[in-house]
Specification:
Length: about 200
């Protein structure tokens, strides 16, 4: 049987920041501990500008939509922040929500993570798809839909909050694709889906 992944042209890549103790946000959605300086922000821009779309949940999308559409209008946001505002506005976005009816900024709303819909999306031409959010990542992981993990580990222990990875019965083999250490101490851990283990062969005697 041929794995349908080999026929797709786009990968789904989970990109997110995490504390050293595994949280993506603290209590009350606090992300004030994120160490995003110009170097790291420019790196994010370089990576995300090549993507073919953003995949997010409703809460993340609404938080982004509250700031990024007009962020580059403020002279105080010159540089990589303004650059990202333009990237975000122009990028096709898919929001997964059971309650959101309409939204702006080049956005499509899907009600649930349907594997067939996602495979159809990845089969379309264009760049890879950037996935964000712990809850959405859990749903994608449940259906074995994540191809790469780019986890940015920040040098801080926040003690409690929302963990990146929820408990799951799914095991996914990965291989290290690379690492990068930034000047502010953030470390990128880049993993890809491991190649399928070849079947064991036996020789006759």
């Amino acid at each position: 049987m041929t794995d349908s992944r080999t026929q797709t042209t786009r990968k789904i890549i989970l990109m997110t920041s995490v504390s050293l103790d595994g949280f993506i946000e603290g209590p009350d959605r606090d992300i004030g501990w994120h160490l995003v300086d110009d170097e790291l922000h420019r790196h994010f821009n370089e990576e995300l500008s090549t993507m073919g779309g953003f995949l997010t949940g409703r809460v993340t999308h609404e938080l982004m939509a509250d700031f990024w559409p007009t962020a580059d209008a403020d002279p105080a946001n010159a540089g990589p922040v303004a650059d990202y505002a333009r990237i975000w506005r122009d990028m096709p976005k898919t929001v997964f929500s059971r309650t959101l009816e309409t939204t702006d900024w080049n956005t499509t709303v899907l009600r649930e993570v349907d594997p067939e819909q996602i495979r159809a999306l990845t089969a379309q031409p264009g760049g890879d798809l950037a996935l964000g959010g712990a809850d959405l990542a859990a749903a994608f992981r449940q259906h074995d839909l994540i191809d790469e993990y780019r986890i940015y580990v920040h040098p801080v222990l926040i003690g409690r909050g929302k963990p990146l990875f929820q408990a799951s019965d799914t095991r996914t083999g990965l291989r290290l694709a690379g690492t990068r250490t930034f000047g502010n101490g953030v470390v990128l851990l880049h993993h890809r889906r491991a190649d399928p283990t070849p079947p064991e062969t036996t020789s006759g005697h």
